[in-house]
Write a structure and sequence with these properties.
It comes from Trujillonella endophytica. Belongs to the glutathione peroxidase family. Keywords: Oxidoreductase, Peroxidase. Pfam families: GSHPx. With about 180 residues, the protein is α+β, with helices and mostly antiparallel strands. The chain has 5 helices and 6 strands. It has helices spanning about 40-50, 75-85, 105-110, 125-130, 170-180, and strands at about 5-10, 15, 25-30, 55-60, 150, 155-160. A 4-stranded mixed beta sheet has the order 4-3-5-6, with helices on both faces. The protein has a two-stranded antiparallel ribbon with strand order 1-2. α1 (about 40-50) links the parallel β3 and β4.
Length: about 180
């Protein structure tokens, strides 16, 4: 199974086959509008504008599973992303990324790279998660908003990045994936 094998819902209620992105490098991100990490939208859009012509697609997936930080409707989320951060990359319909109702894409991504969420790899955020959701530690669960998965042109997961890793910090990995 690969990322290209999944279909996702768009914000307007239609569906999108991820196979339509075959041959492109994908950066798949769970997002939220009312999170301390929301300004990462700016960095994601910058990467999209810089590398889009070379084959990068940033795919945003809003999720309200982390302290209710994405409460809006799909329409409200689209408006927020556009007006507040000038987002032009696709932001899909709201999804669950964990639990029994997790979208199959996210179950696949989590299993493909369970992450390395430790106090060293996620300073500050680790302590927060240890307090509010200690049962998530040591699992493949997405721990918070703005977890990112880099997907190669072949649809295989290249790497998972925890929320505290900024878009700019993964620039060199994106360049490598685009060149590969």
């Amino acid at each position: 199974m690969k990322t290209h094998d999944f279909t996702v819902d768009t914000a307007d209620g239609s569906t999108q086959r991820l196979s339509d992105y075959a041959g492109k490098v994908l950066l798949v991100v769970n997002t939220a509008s009312k999170c301390g990490l929301t300004p990462q939208y700016e960095g994601l859009e910058k990467l999209y504008r810089e590398f889009g012509e070379q084959g990068l697609e940033v795919l945003g997936f809003p999720s309200n599973q982390f302290m209710g930080q994405e409460p809006g409707t799909d329409e409200e989320i689209q408006e927020f992303c556009s007006t507040q951060y000038g987002v032009t990359f696709p932001v899909f319909a709201k999804v669950d990324v964990n639990g029994p109702d997790a979208h199959p894409l996210w179950s696949y991504l989590r299993a493909a790279d369970p992450g390395d969420f430790t106090a060293e790899t996620a300073p500050g955020l680790y302590d927060h998660i240890a307090k509010i959701k200690p049962d998530a530690l040591g699992t493949d669960e997405v721990k918070w908003n703005f977890t990112k998965f880099l997907i190669g042109r072949d649809g295989e997961v290249v790497r998972r990045y925890e929320p505290s890793v900024t878009p700019d910090q993964i620039r060199s990995d994106i360049e490598t994936a685009l060149a590969g």
